[in-house]
Amino acid sequence: MTTITELKAAAQRILIAAAEKASRTTGFTKRKSKLTGALFVQTLVLGWLSRPEATLEELSQTAATLGVRISPQGLDQRFTKEAAAFLHAVLKEAVYEKVRGEPVAVALLTRFHAVYLVDSSQVTLPRVLADVWRGNGRSDPKAGTEASVKIHLALELVEGTLVGPELTDGKEQDRNANLMATVLPKDTLRIADLGYFRLSELARQSRLGVDWLTRFQTKTGFYDTDGRAWELDAFLLAHDTDRSETEGPWTLDVPILLGLSERLPCRLLAVRVPPAVAEERRRKLRQKAKARGGTPSEKELVLCDWSVLLTSVSVETLSLSEVFVLARLRWQIELVFKLWKSYLRIDEWRSKNPWRILCEVYAKLLAALLQHWTLVVTGWEIPDRSLFKAAATVRSFARSIALALCGKASWDAVIGSIRRCLQAGCRLNKRRKAPSSAQLSFDPLLLGLN
Hints:
It is globular and about 75 Å long. By secondary structure, the chain is α+β, with helices and mostly antiparallel strands. Among the domains are: 4-96 and 349-424, no CATH class; 211-325, no CATH class. The chain has helices at 4-25, 37-50, 56-65, 72-76, 81-94, 107-110, 199-207, 232-239, 275-291, 298-302, 320-328, 331-342, 354-379, 387-396, 398-405, 411-424, 437-442, and strands spanning 114-124, 148-156, 162-169, 188-192, 211-215, 222-223, 229-230, 251-258, 264-272, 306-311. It is built from 17 helices and 10 strands. Helix 2 (37-50) packs across helix 3, helix 2 (37-50) runs antiparallel to helix 15 (398-405) and helix 5 packs parallel to helix 13 (354-379). The model is unreliable at 139-144 (pLDDT under 50).
């Protein structure tokens, strides 16, 4: 577990030492100035952490809190191409900091050495930045544009550690990210989004003693235990049987060999979803296909009737219900991205200056890391914590953190106050009809699967 003192050291390494070094190597600092590289980074990171919509005037006030007077106009002049490269260099140093919280006491998670969730999100940028971050060239805003940056991230659920964020061109496929090559400890469980699905990578993880859990890539063939080759829709239709509602949902949990050439041993787990859920899936599938000028295949429409997972974890380690609960926990990393976008607004800005926009993206990602590190050290062990409530508490102390960093307030007192606030509140409300992920983690039977 990272202590409060170690958290301070990590923050100082990035926001002071790494910032000063990068300001020189990137050419941001050309002559002696009252606004040093470190103070510039701290002004943006802590200013936008406190208020993501902060104006230049408000950022100038943050600078004043840190002990330097600079006008809004003077600050605006600092947003250059060199400043963007500088902030990106600091961000790349920050991802090497591994801040760990006290392990959360959830038996379903602690069966593994660690449980990593892997996903990505995309930020669309002005077209003029296409030479920096190349998008996929599509006109659909949801798909990306000529300029966009993709943010890859892994979140560890037991201690809250982050791997990343790693930034790539928006056009780059998820499975090509360097994050994929991260060597995880033995007896770790890796739960990745379908964009990271690659049979060779799953086989590599298995050889390293790392278990994995993923949705089924529908174009992947496999063999049953009798050596027959199958496609997913035909296999499910052949095994599905009519059951009365009193018997609960139809489920399947069978061993297979995944891939027609790889033949990777794993479990295939399936649950038939309610008709209303299946119809809603088909509606969205048709809507998405129509937006692209096509129609969904019959196979895609048929597969809407089931939720299907693959895992290398043995049935002795995880039951079917427990596997589906863990799959639902993948939503936790989507919550992190939602938190970064909806509250820290990493994809929103006030300016039309492309370099100021890029500076804001990098600085807000640094603010997101500082926010997460503080949250992890002060309250990760709380199993029913609300990420949104906890993050809001951390942001409310942003000015106090600024004072602590420049030695005008006690770091231990500020972080201690945040810890007491998280311990006193910031909890999820219990739900009867739709149990939260925390509730399901403690009692997988609440999911309603036999």
